[in-house]
Structure formats: structure tokens, C-alpha cells
Design the sequence.
């Protein structure tokens, strides 16, 4: 996995490629006993997906990072090869990465814990849509942007 912030407080979930598509490994990296609203909201968002969609996710990692790269105005970011673009030659590659950015979401929510949960859920589902090859334009058409 990639190196992240020095305190290593992000949570990471890895969905490796498997024949069955089932989640083969879940690695939560956070301090024991720490109540992490971002991790919980990510877990809730993933749990809300239909089982067949969760099973179809492949070779993707979800992490919480403090801030987006270069101060970009982002709440989340998908980096990788969307499932529909993968061919028979897709193998031995690092996982796709979905980053959820704690700082911008926290500032947007302005101290409202319920809003943090709603925003994290929205961002996670939005970035998972990109993993499935759904563009921003299509999400706008579907009123899901």
C-alpha cells in the first residue's frame, strides 16, 4: 500500500481481485478504541450497497486522507482503471485508490456530525461509481452528482 500521512490515521479497505469477487481482505488502520466517524461512515456507505455490487468491486482501496493533493477543491478522488476498461491483460497492478478527504468534508459540515456522515456517504458512493466506470457527466444526468 502507499505511504500516507505520518500519523497513519487513515482507514484502508482493500478489495483485491478474486475469482468470486468477494472482499478478500479488510485492513482497518486506526488507533484502537478511536471513534472514527469517517471510518464508520465509510463502513455504512459500503454496507448500503447491494451485495452484488460489493462483490463486483475489485482491486480497489478506500482510504481517508487529511487533505486533497495540491490544495485541490475535492472531497474525494478516484484513481485507477475503472472496471469496464479492464481487459484480459489487467493483472499484477497496484489497487485503484479512492481517497476521502477529511479536512474539506469536516469544514463543509461545520461541526455537524450528521452532515459529516451524509457527506462521507455521498462521496464514497460517488467515487465507487467512478470505479464502475460512471462519469461525472452521467452522474449529473442521473441526478446523483
Sequence:
Amino acid at each position: 500500500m502507499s505511504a500516507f500521512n505520518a500519523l497513519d490515521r487513515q482507514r484502508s479497505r482493500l478489495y483485491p481481485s478474486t475469482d468470486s469477487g468477494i472482499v478478500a481482505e479488510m485492513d482497518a488502520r486506526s488507533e484502537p478504541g478511536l471513534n472514527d466517524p469517517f471510518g464508520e461512515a465509510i463502513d455504512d456507505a459500503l454496507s448500503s450497497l447491494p451485495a452484488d455490487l460489493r462483490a463486483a468491486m475489485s482491486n480497489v482501496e478506500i482510504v481517508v486522507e487529511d487533505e486533497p493533493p495540491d490544495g485541490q477543491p475535492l472531497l474525494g478522488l478516484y484513481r485507477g482503471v475503472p472496471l469496464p476498461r479492464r481487459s484480459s491483460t489487467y493483472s499484477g497492478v497496484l489497487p485503484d485508490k479512492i481517497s476521502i478527504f477529511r479536512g474539506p468534508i469536516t469544514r463543509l459540515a461545520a461541526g455537524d456530525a450528521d452532515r459529516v456522515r451524509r457527506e462521507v456517504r455521498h462521496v464514497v458512493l460517488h467515487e465507487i461509481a467512478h470505479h464502475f466506470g460512471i462519469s461525472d457527466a452521467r452522474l449529473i444526468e442521473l441526478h446523483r452528482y
Q: What stands out?
A: The helical segments are 37-48, 51-56, 102-109, 113-131, 136-141. The radius of gyration is 15 Å.
